[in-house]
């Protein structure tokens, strides 16, 4: 009877640790997907506006920090003419935990980097009104 209880408790503990390990291993993947989606959103904003304004950069930085990322650097073309290249780059860190082989939680910092460039398709008219 006691042997079954010890086996059940040990199996329960191992399943809990295994579940935590799987959860902690999958968390960076989901954070990367969230990071890429937010960056892509601002690339679309940059494409629609013909550049990335300083207020958009501040909003992006605030959204990143609200989601737990520490932004190191954001660069983006502020304004471009039709046919010019728009470039966007952001570097951020995210702090998470991992289980070590000694079954101890260790805090680690993951670095994320997103870079893209595209051609400006926004036509701006600078003609004077009559």
Describe this structure in words.
The mean pLDDT is 88. The protein has a 3-stranded antiparallel sheet with strand order 1-2-3, with helices on one face. Strand 1 and strand 2 (85-99) form a beta hairpin. Helix 1 (2-49) packs antiparallel against helix 2. It is α+β, with helices and mostly antiparallel strands. It is rod-shaped. It has helices at 2-49, 54-66, and strands at residues 69-76, 85-99, 105-119.
* Radius of gyration, in angstroms, nearest whole number: 23 Å
Order of helices and strands: HHEEE
Note the gap between the termini. Answer: 96 Å
**What class do helices, strands and sheet pairing give?**
alpha+beta
> Overall pLDDT, averaged?
88
Largest sheet: 3 strands, antiparallel
Described by the principal axes of the CA atoms, the overall outline is: rod-shaped
Strand tally is 3
Strand content: 25-35%
Low-confidence stretches: none
Helix content: 40-55%
Question: Treating each run of at least 4 consecutive H or I residues as one helix, how many helices?
Answer: 2
Order of strands, main sheet, comes to: 1-2-3
């Amino acid at each position: 009877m006691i042997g079954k209880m010890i086996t059940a408790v040990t199996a329960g503990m191992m399943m809990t640790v295994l579940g935590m390990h799987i959860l902690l291993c999958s968390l960076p993947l989901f954070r990367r997907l969230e990071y890429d989606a937010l960056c892509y959103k601002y690339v679309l904003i940059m494409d629609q506006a013909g550049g990335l304004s300083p207020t958009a950069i501040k909003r992006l930085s605030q959204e990143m920090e609200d989601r737990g990322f520490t932004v190191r650097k954001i660069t983006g073309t502020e304004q471009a003419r039709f046919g010019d290249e728009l470039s966007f780059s952001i570097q951020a860190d995210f702090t998470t935990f991992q289980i070590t082989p000694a079954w101890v939680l260790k805090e680690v910092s993951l670095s994320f980097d997103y870079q893209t460039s595209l051609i400006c398709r926004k036509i701006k008219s600078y003609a004077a009104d009559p």
